[in-house]
Design goal:
By secondary structure, the protein is an alpha/beta fold. It is 31% helix and 27% strand. The protein has two domains: 67 residues, Ribosomal Protein L25, Chain P (Beta Barrel); 157 residues, Alpha/beta knot (3-Layer(aba) Sandwich), CATH 3.40.1280.10. α2 packs parallel to α3 and α2 runs parallel beside α7. The model has no long low-confidence stretch (mean pLDDT 94).
Length: 241
């Protein structure tokens, strides 16, 4: 069944409504009709098997036949904080791939070596929505407004595992941390093209972040973000039923 999205406020106990861009895709692109079966996700962790019961000019009403909780979602919540990239197209790819991997939030970071660019938060949120549906997830990652590294590390939750890849770390890895810590959530900080400064690493360490190695090769920012996220999420299999 094709995936569609509708927000929680359009869902009741027995029915849900599809409208807006999703309705246009449903009727004009996919050519769905009354009686067709769909899988609709609410972006908050629930998936619904539905049958279209009525199509009007702007909305489609569907009967809910089954519900699934956290379909295809990993068993751990990963927040990915990444320094803004000079090349906006590369950050687009990062948002798309991080969503496919299974992160629950993406936070653009402002660091001392970040080259200021106008953030495209609304565009990134739309890319996350498309990637959520394409990958079969039911949680829509939130793309936050940019925030400074200092503010971010000092406001990160105390009860999560905090990871910051750093080229000067040679022994501690993500795998070794995961065997030592038991946490339902992880926060990852990824630096800009020029890397974090020593002062920034010290600030993060003071806020409880553990430096880790991603291997001997020098990785681009978006590559490091994907590698680190995947290393954590692959240790926590997704719900498939």
């Amino acid at each position: 069944m094709e995936y569609f999205y509708t927000p929680p406020h359009l869902i009741t106990h027995n029915e849900l409504t599809i409208e807006g861009d999703e309705f246009a895709h449903l009727t004009h692109v996919m050519r769905k009709r009354v009686g067709d079966m769909l899988l609709v996700v609410d972006g908050a962790g629930r998936a619904y098997e539905v049958i279209i019961k009525e199509v009007s000019r702007r909305t489609a009403r569907c009967s809910i036949t089954a519900r699934r909780e956290r379909l295809h979602e990993p068993g751990i919540a990963v927040t990915l904080a990444v320094a803004l990239l000079k090349n906006a197209a590369r950050f687009d790819v990062l948002v798309e791939k991080a969503t496919e991997i299974g992160v629950v939030a993406i936070v653009p970071l402002l660091t001392k070596r970040t080259i200021p660019e106008h953030p495209k938060t609304e565009r990134w949120q739309k890319l996350a929505l498309a990637a959520m549906k394409q990958s079969g997830r039911c949680v829509l990652p939130r793309v936050h407004e940019p925030v400074s590294l200092t503010d971010f590390v000092h406001t990160s939750p105390a009860n999560c595992l905090k990871v910051i890849p750093h080229e000067q770390e040679t022994t501690r890895t993500i795998s070794s941390l995961l065997t030592s810590y038991s946490s339902a959530s992880v926060v990852i900080c990824i630096g800009p093209e020029g890397g974090f400064t020593d002062e920034e690493i010290a600030v993060a360490a003071g806020a409880g972040f553990h430096t880790v190695s991603l291997g001997p090769r020098r990785l681009r920012t978006e590559t490091a973000a994907i590698v680190a996220s995947a290393a954590i999420i692959l240790h926590h299999p997704a719900q498939t039923q």
